[in-house]
Amino acid sequence: GETLRTRLAREHQLPIADVVRIASEVASALDYAHRQGVVHRDIKPENILLHDGQALVADFGIALAVQTAGGERMTQTGLSLGTPSYMSPEQAMGEKTIDARSDVYALGAVTYEMLTGDAPFTGSTVQAIVAKVLSADAERPTMLRKTVPPHVEATVLTALAKLPADRFATAAEFKDAINRPDYAGASTQASSVVSRQTATTRTVKQRVLHATPWALAVAGLATSAWLATHQAALPPPPVSRFAVRFTPEVVTGRPAQTIAMSQDGSRIAYVGAVSTGIQLFMRTMSDVVPTPIPGTINAMSPFFSPDGEQLGFVMGTKLFKVAVAGGPALPVTDVGTTFRGGTWSATDTILFADERGLLLVPAAGGQASLLVRADSATGEVFTWPEFLPGDKAALVSINDGNADRLAAVTIPTAKLTRFDVLGGNPHYVDHGYVTLGMIEAGSGGVVSGTLMAVPFDAKRLRVLGQRIPVTDSVQVGLNSRAAKLGISRRGTLAFASGTVGMSSIVAVTRTGVVRELSAQPKFYSSPRLSPDGKRIAVVVNDVGTDIWVHDMSSRTLSRLTFDRSGQRPAWTPDGRRVVYERRGSESTDLAWIAADGSSQAESLTVAPQDQIAESFTPDGRTLLIGETLLGGRRSIAVVAVDSARKPRPLLATTTQNFSPSLSPDGRWMAYVSDETGRLEVYVRPFPGPGGRWQISKDGGNEPRWSPTGREIFFRSGPAMMAAEVQAGAQFASGAVRELFRTTASTSTFHTNYDVTRDGQTFIMVQPKASNDQNV
After folding, report:
1. Coil, strand, or helix at residue 5?
2. pTM
3. 73 and 47 in contact (C-beta within 8 Å)?
């Protein structure tokens, strides 16, 4: 036969009659096992076999292991044995005593999945799932599938009760209840209250998202609204939710923070998309049209001063400040290569995080001093600090390579207090709450964020209770853990809504026909074909970034680097090595590594700013790179990889110049510049001197030379364009035409696709579509 997991993968949801029958048969098997003194501990669809229509419970491995170890001895350590999505709360917490009611909970979870298509609690990490198992309530099955009979729903909800005493005492009771049409269950009434609230929130958000997808959702969330969910005596105050279409649109695909709100809730600052890249915009709650902030081209991670009159932001490797009423952007201090958020105190001190740890600097400018150093040995990362009232301490989230957890640091003593609370990007709200963003994995390769609130004593730096759900569908960066939101001290919340899809590596023909290459969805970027066209080097973003290699024939994906900071690969012409950008604690270097993983990575060049490997000369001796100069300006340089390996400027002007691509004969360089005020594609001789030719006519980016040398491909908005060229001893440009339109991922300063050797197919990264059902 097959496992229940195999059938669920094929059918997703099972007929109600089959659900009741399978659940009853599993309950009978468990009841027999329990009467023999055996607790299974790992009931899940994989361990339920369907043979000739009969359900059999298999794999008592954990139960056997516990018994073999002496029963008591193994459980006394408090081990959590089992599968997270089906673990009971007491099992997830590693309780010493686990009885039959834990198996009843797991059976309830399996039945829930047979009815709805998903386990009651899912998440992108084990910690995220366990957090939900311990604190969240499962949504009523009838909210996901209206045909579920009331008695079946009541049975499942009773089995999923948090307290073992509130569940069925035996599996036999579960079987009896699910076959009794009159069974109501003690938890049904309480669950319906939670579900009605969930349904109301979902209805509002679905209307918002269908009307204005990827809009900026603005929610007035008074702290008392959270209190009302836990104190029945208080009447719930009104909560206003409405969507605002910002023009230009809020940039959401960036790993950094893109939205900020002043402490009084009167102003929103955000990163918007413009023709030359990105820029900061500011909008008051009384204005309809956002105002561009001069001097903030390519700015990221905005944060307000306490009075809301100034903005801090990062541009390149420098921290700046600017008055929102107008005036020049003023430098504050140098920052590391990976800025992870800043916060501004009432005493005019800025606390910020980068790869070094937490640093303090006067807002007037100067040298930053290290407050807390990140432990590089354990790989911990500090992100998104925020001053607490009084400015004597600040919140911060710390990532240990697996999950984000809340922490607080006192100033100036640098005492670090860590809390066992999952979540990142903390914000303090008056009346004693800290909001935290959580990354959640849904079905179909879609990721979304959930905003939680935890009661918090800001004076004593103590967590006072369990996390409370505030809203879901908040975009959260997978690697940066930056929830795309701003929140005032009064509880007004502005966030970018919608789910974010994982992606696939795809092949797209010149007519736009798409064929998926990768076997599993991940967060891919920067695909690069090997010279022989058989392998694809690609970045995989998963709590850090590394270079992986996809084999075209076997469709297998193997990891090449283990730095957790690898970016933007490029192949050497002989296909033996892959060059990539590697970000360290104090600098960024270009490294190369054997493409078969047979040797360790070797550093080529080291610099304090970004270095992007772009294009090799045909002999493989010279590499064109993109650099970030002081102030965030982009330039093009060359590196002789067989000699000094020191970058030498090639095209550094007062404008932005980036994304160089060499012609197959190495005589001509296509690149992007904003010299006209918007991004266009140009060609000039390599290494020069000579003139230049503008290739794109209505905006262009991400140029890539055809391997035949007769075309230059580039992106213009959603369109993939092809420009005919003659490139030999002399250069001439010809007709430009659109090949196809695509929703494949783009990149501002780096080409995010490649072209096969015959110039007929494009290797791209295609995001999975967002799914409103997960909102």
Report:
1. helix
2. 0.52
3. no
